[in-house]
Design brief:
This protein is an alpha/beta fold. About 40% of the residues lie in helices and about 10% in strands. It is built from 22 helices and 15 strands. The chain has a 7-stranded parallel β-sheet with strand order 2-8-11-12-13-14-15. Helix 7 (about 165-175) links the parallel strand 6 and strand 7. It is globular, with a radius of gyration of 24 Å. The protein starts with about 40 loop residues before the first strand and ends in a 15-residue tail after the last helix.
């Protein structure tokens, strides 16, 4: 598929402002220029749409180190590697810059990939291409999940599912002179051991903080709200260790020396294969002098496998995102997240920390079976377990998930253009009153990112954090760059002088230096993350309270009518204030 880097609902966010017309208004496909390779190699313009501001955008942090984007796109460079060698490619990441008129004019065909979060700019770029008579092919998680949006936006070719299987169908259509089509794998999943090394050379590498790699696709679990098993299946498919090392070799040759995100939705879905790969990765890291740090996403059962955690840390993994969702066991059971009910969640988090991995937690409010006060219980859990970064949102029903299907049968889906992010109300009728749920969420989000509580969590986490894997592995001394020194000075000024938490900042910094000095650089980096959250928590409050105010001024009967719901449906009692 085009969008191999798939953000879950936690990563989704709001519309891009300033779109003057309906982004999905029908477009006349007859204006498309026919694709031809006659006279020259096919010139393919790869466009990655713009993200609105999100929980994960970290603009203020990136500004400190002179970068524009947190993570590189992975799907389009992979697609470029799968397409014919005779084709020419240019990649434009709209999160870095706009497409130039020269690039539009150069292109014979335009390929776009996106996640749901990028939906508006996706439609905007399709429109821009069509205005110039360019044929458009689209793929990735968003087109695969909601292909009808792409048809309405005017895309010519819908290359759905995973590209290893559907790109050949697309190429056959081009050869035959077909001016459009939809290409699907009909449920088949490819063997990713055939996936080539992505075209990393197409990146504007200096703009990125982190490079994206993918080791596996799929997840063995059954979480009702997650679309990963719909998109990738329940049988985890892994690349070979040799494939991963070849990708790392290319990044190394291109001069990359910073962090790498393994974008797998569950890196440990196949633990046996993961361990085999990590053993070879460790030897590669030692040979190269540990040029990379890694982070990834894994299920909570990682905490039960000490060997796996030790291998990850030895390879220089320094953090892991874990979908904890809620400490309410009844809600976890209803949403089929059974793996989170087998052991006390707090014990699992502590095991991850003690083995040297900083936990990032995903939390959701709004599950069926959830009792009043869920927001407070989530805040208490986050603070008690000292999880520094907690991605917190209200539940959203993603298309084609088990949750979507169940809510549709129960007549609880709302006909809304939900942005599906931290600043969105649920796109379904919850069991609790919407206003109560939203109020709990806003207050809990603000509490999680209270400056005192955030610094205390970071401090407590890093006091217990096990040592980094590369400790003592290389005799080479690496001096900080001027950019890093400047960022540190700005951080010290803001958090150590200007803000009211100044004394806490200095106390914690000195204490970590004395008591667990080997993690000090990592600790400072996570303190810097607060430069993003100090603003983002206010955005969440402003947006959610605005949505609630709109509900208050809408008559209940009109609200029901606008959303195509049945007045007799007993679940609608939950929207009464």
């Amino acid at each position: 598929m085009f969008g191999l880097y798939k953000e879950s609902v936690r990563f989704d966010c709001s519309f891009v402002e300033g779109l003057e017309s309906d982004p999905y208004a029908p477009y006349d496909k007859n204006q498309t220029t026919r694709v031809t390779t006659e006279g020259h190699a096919m010139r393919c313009l790869l466009i990655y749409p713009k993200f609105p501001r999100t929980f994960w955008s970290f603009e203020r942090v990136l500004e400190l180190v002179g970068r524009k984007v947190l993570v590189s796109p992975l799907g389009l460079p992979t697609v470029a590697a799968l397409l014919p060698d005779s084709w020419e490619f240019r990649l434009v990441d709209r999160n870095i810059r706009a497409v130039t008129e020269d690039e539009w004019a150069w292109a014979d065909i335009v390929l776009l990939s996106a996640m749901i979060v990028q939906r508006v700019d996706m439609a905007d770029q399709i429109l821009e291409a069509k205005k110039r008579g360019k044929p458009v092919a689209v793929g990735g998680p968003y087109p695969t999940s909601v292909p009808e949006d792409m048809e309405r936006a005017g895309a010519d070719y819908l290359v759905l599912d995973e590209a290893e299987l559907t790109l050949p169908l697309f190429l056959d259509a081009l050869e035959k002179g077909e001016t459009g089509g939809t290409f699907t794998a009909h449920g088949e999943k490819p063997d990713v051991t055939s996936t080539p090394v992505p075209r990393f050379d197409l990146y504007e590498m200096d703009a990125y903080d982190t490079m994206a790699l993918q080791y596996s696709r799929g997840c063995p679990f059954l979480c009702e709200f997650c679309d990963i098993i719909t998109l990738y299946g329940r049988r985890p498919r892994t690349k070979t260790p040799q494939q991963i090392l070849a990708e790392l070799d290319l990044l190394y040759e291109l001069g990359w020396r910073r962090s790498i995100l393994m974008v797998d939705d569950n890196f440990i879905g196949n633990k046996k294969n993961a361990k085999q790969m990590l053993r070879q990765l460790l030897e590669w890291q030692k040979e190269k002098g540990f040029p990379f740090t890694f982070n990834t996403e894994a299920s909570i059962d990682l905490a039960e496998d000490k060997e796996l955690m030790r291998l990850m840390v030895a390879c220089n993994f320094d953090s892991v995102f874990i979908g904890i969702e809620t400490p309410d066991e009844a809600a976890l059971t209803i949403t089929r997240k059974y793996q989170n009910t087998r052991k006390p969640l707090s014990d699992s988090v502590q095991s991850v920390i003690e083995h040297g991995l900083r936990p990032m937690g995903g939390f959701i409010i709004g599950f069926d079976g959830e009792k009043r006060g869920a927001g407070d219980r989530i805040v208490e859990f986050i603070n008690d377990t000292a999880i520094p970064t907690a991605n917190f949102s209200m539940l959203q029903a993603l298309p084609n998930t088990a949750l979507w299907d169940r809510l549709k049968k129960e007549n609880r889906l709302l006909d809304t253009d939900s942005d599906i992010n931290q600043t969105s109300l649920p796109n379904y009728v919850p069991q609790r009153p919407m206003e109560e749920l939203a109020h709990e969420y806003v207050e809990a989000f603000a509490a999680v990112y209270d400056p005192d509580r955030y610094l205390d969590r970071v401090y407590q986490c890093f006091l217990k954090l096990g040592p980094p894997g590369k400790q003592g592995s290389s005799s080479k001394v690496v001096f900080p760059s001027w950019v890093e020194i400047r960022a540190l000075l700005i951080l010290m000024w803001r958090q150590g002088v200007v803000r009211s938490t100044r004394w806490k900042f200095w106390h914690h910094l000195l204490s970590i230096g004395i008591r667990n000095g080997v993690v000090l650089p990592h600790y400072v980096a996570v303190c810097a993350h607060y430069e993003h959250f100090i603003e983002y928590r206010d955005i969440v409050r402003y947006e959610i309270e605005g949505h609630i105010e709109n509900l208050r001024i809408t008559d209940d009967d009109q609200y029901v009518a606008d959303n195509g719901l049945s007045v007799q449906d007993p679940v609608l009692e939950t929207i009464d204030a």
